Amino acid sequence: MARKIFLGARIFDGERFHDEKALIIADGRVETIVARNDLPDGEVVTLAGGVLSAGFIDAQVNGGAGRMLNDEPSTASMDIIAGGHRPYGTMSLLPTLITDTSEASAAAIEAAKEAVKANRGVAGLHLEGPHLAPARKGAHLAELMRPVEDRDVKAFIAAREAIGTLLVTMAAEQVTVAQVRELAEAGVTISIGHSDCSSEAAEERFDAGARGVTHLFNAMSQLGHRTPGLVGAAIDHPSTWCGIIADGHHVDPKALRTALRAKRGEGKLFFVTDAMSLVGSEKDSFTLNGRTVRRERGGFCSKLVLSDGTLAGSDVDMISTIRYGVTYLDLTLAEALRMATLYPARFLRLADRGHLSPGTRADLVHLTDALAVTATWLSGEAA
């Protein structure tokens, strides 16, 4: 049995820190955390201080390393995107296809089947559209948006069975309560987003099994004192999880701090990047559905905009969102790490990752005290 012993760093197990301890892994899985005077035999990996954590999990990654999934929805693209985010600590992600044709969605589903089997960081697939509301289209193409049909329900259920983890973002206006219930009971993870719905319509779908809300505050009906909208329903509903983009551009930190304090119940806010192809790339522009998206430098990180100024995804990576959380959102380091590991794992029902417990995947990231990534391991192997 190939055993490795990690020493020298504080260990964050997904819930709490362990000081003066060692992480033991064997055959790509976590074995245990032990005192430093109680070490088994094995290869010793000595770390120079800092923090050793479970690898980060990102449920919404449109692109990276110069590649957009929409440009080529293939297994090769998914591998490139996963590799582009690995230097920033993301060891599991869902490649995300934004609103596109039925043919593109089918290709992404087929590609994800193989990418998940390859076990190189692709944990499933996120389809963000085409079942979104034109009134809240954001950077998506409204002309491709449409309601969910029976054939879509069947296709999503079949895809979930083949891929394992399938996340689908839908507007409440485009999916019925009965359809949500059928999909949820079949294991499809439904997230409400790009929606102008009422709080009541959102709550009906949460109660039917929709688990989350896609990039809270962005592209959705806002919180009013008499019309709480999707934002109010998401914060108030106890079992609903909410992805947030913490880049200094998508949401004002005051709004995020308020949501973090107000979120009720078991569901939590967790980090997503909504990253586009420029993460891990030196280019300053790319094409999205025939439109140019340009990088505007400045602020906490660059922002990506269409010609009319509409935000088009983000230029942020996961370790940067953790730094943003600690610096601007009043988060402890432990909570910021949970929002990049434990919480997205629970939202996606990825029980074998996001924390360091016996039997979980040894997907690891080592951080300096300044929260810079120094090394990563995928199933216990340096990556």
TrEMBL record:
Its EC number is 3.5.1.25. Keywords: Carbohydrate metabolism, Hydrolase, Metal-binding. It is an enzyme of class 3 (hydrolase). CDD domains: NagA. Residues 52-381 form the Amidohydrolase-related domain. The keyword Metal-binding applies. GO terms for molecular function: N-acetylglucosamine-6-phosphate deacetylase activity. The keyword Aminoacyl-tRNA synthetase does not apply. Belongs to the metallo-dependent hydrolases superfamily. NagA family. This is N-acetylglucosamine-6-phosphate deacetylase. It comes from Rhizobium changzhiense.
